[in-house]
């Protein structure tokens, strides 16, 4: 069956958890499988029949159990009067060690909600974000789950569209969130932090004339924040937050580079992305150093092209570092 849009996470025992969209009879469904030296069981469908489900995001809790969100369509849903007439909503399920919980709707309101991201903190609390139409604009929405999912909230509502949010959790439980802010014809990457239950004012991370898209966020154990994104000039950039946001740094310089994904660690941060040149595509990888006095000292600019096997190993390593899902697009 055709399959796409995978997400991975690794638990403390080294077990790899994978979810993806598989198109059964042309309709997307979410499937799950685990690897620990070998595939532990056959692939398992975790979204309900017969409705569409796609674009899963995955988090693994401290007990090693997977949690998954996706956007999907409820059976017999009626298209609402939204901009696109969409009927997508965000659903959640989690595994308790025995069974998967029945899928739960977590995006009340107009059913035009897409591209969720999911992360877990050290206490076991889950944090989810997505973007959702409010009747006028697409807004970033955020919800958290302890024992149950709390009512979602809009993050810094504006009179402009906000797309493709991503989030990560810092060592003290602070939430860092980045998204695309669309103001007319421009697209800027913005970010905020949630501290003591309040969102900081949004900060523009990208600059220049290029349209910036597809942010990916990760936080190192030290608390250093990394945000990477691509631009319509085909290049990848990064900004780092320690006590303040450092200036943006371009990581690439040739070909077309899209859909970056970052995972932070005590050693710095690792970035992978799609590189296209002369009609061919490959996965590229870059290690960002943990510190230094200049960009040349801090950022190793040697980007390595990865073959299929190497790419899988690199992705497994990134999952072990971050256990989080990256990449944002409809699909």
Automatic annotation (TrEMBL):
The chain crosses the membrane at residues 303-322. Keywords: Membrane, Transmembrane, Transmembrane helix. SUPFAM superfamilies: Fucose-specific lectin. Gene3D superfamilies: Fucose-specific lectin (2.120.10.70). This is Exo-alpha-sialidase. It comes from Candidatus Segetimicrobium genomatis.
């Amino acid at each position: 069956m055709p399959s796409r849009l995978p997400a991975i996470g690794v638990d403390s025992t080294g077990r790899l958890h994978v979810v993806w969209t598989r198109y059964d009879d042309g309709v997307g469904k979410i499937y799950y499988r685990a690897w620990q030296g070998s595939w532990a069981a056959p692939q398992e469908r975790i979204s309900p029949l017969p409705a569409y489900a796609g674009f899963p995001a995955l988090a693994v809790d401290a007990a090693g159990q997977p949690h998954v969100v996706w956007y999907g369509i409820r059976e017999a849903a009626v298209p609402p009067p939204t901009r696109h007439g969409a009927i997508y909503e965000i659903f959640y399920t989690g595994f308790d060690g025995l069974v998967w919980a029945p899928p739960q709707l977590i995006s009340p309101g107009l059913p035009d909600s897409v591209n969720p991201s999911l992360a877990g903190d050290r206490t076991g609390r889950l944090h989810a974000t997505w973007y959702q139409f409010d009747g006028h604009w697409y807004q970033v929405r955020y919800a958290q789950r302890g024992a149950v999912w709390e009512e979602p909230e809009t993050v810094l509502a504006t009179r402009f569209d906000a797309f493709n949010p991503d989030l990560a959790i810092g060592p003290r439980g602070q939430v860092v969130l980045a998204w695309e802010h669309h103001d007319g014809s421009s697209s800027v990457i913005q970010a905020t932090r949630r501290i003591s239950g309040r969102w900081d004012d949004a900060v523009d991370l990208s600059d220049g004339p290029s349209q910036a898209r597809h942010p990916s966020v990760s936080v190192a154990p030290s608390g250093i924040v990394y945000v990477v994104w691509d631009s319509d000039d085909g290049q990848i950039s990064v900004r780092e937050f320690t006590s303040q946001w450092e200036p943006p740094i371009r990581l690439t310089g040739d070909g077309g580079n899209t859909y970056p994904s970052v995972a932070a660690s005590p050693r710095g941060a690792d970035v992978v992305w799609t590189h296209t040149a002369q009609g061919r595509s490959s996965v590229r990888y870059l290690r960002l150093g943990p510190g230094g006095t200049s960009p040349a000292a801090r950022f190793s600019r040697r980007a390595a092209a990865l073959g299929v096997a190497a790419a899988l190993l690199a992705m497994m390593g990134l999952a072990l570092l971050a256990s989080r899902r990256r990449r944002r697009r409809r699909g």
